[in-house]
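pinging the channel bc i need a second pair of eyes. not urgent but kinda urgent?? the chain im working w is below, pasted from the shared doc
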Amino acid sequence: MEAGDAEAIDRLLAGWTGKAGAAALDAAMPLVYLELKSIATRALRSHAPGAALQTTALVHETYLKLRERDAVWNVGRHALVAMAAQAMRRILVDDARRRDALKRQPPLAFDGIADAGTIPDVLELDALLDELATLSARQAQVVELKCFAGMSIDDIAGHLGVARVTVVRDWRIARAWLAPRMAGE
């Protein structure tokens, strides 16, 4: 995405409140559609073939969830991507619950969280993120933005309004907290 596109998205979304928000989102969607599709592809990458959701369907469901929001303030491209990641997380969790509440889902391949053999399914990761949020909401948000939105450390720092070193530290601590829980220790 070019700088001009990011600025255009920021301008379009600046007044996202109520019904005006739906119009702002409608105008911004063509500019962020490919980015959201890329995020959805990463989120679905390790699902088994024949999974209920496909990339395009996940992006469209995410759009509908975002459109339902009543009011959002200080929205720009990074905030939109973060909200989309959160919506995708909820959609994937709901889908996993619908498909098979008792049976484990295929593991998600989120690079950098844990060894390949210890990666949790989407329901397990959701529960762990909820638990982590009670200890450190920012660390949970860093994991969510990194894993579900595929945001870089610099993008996360900009979105959260903290220093890059803070995000690096939060990511390292969150991974250290998640690793033993994902390994079943």
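so The mean pLDDT is 75. and The chain is about 70% helix and 0% strand. — does that match what u expected or am i reading it wrong
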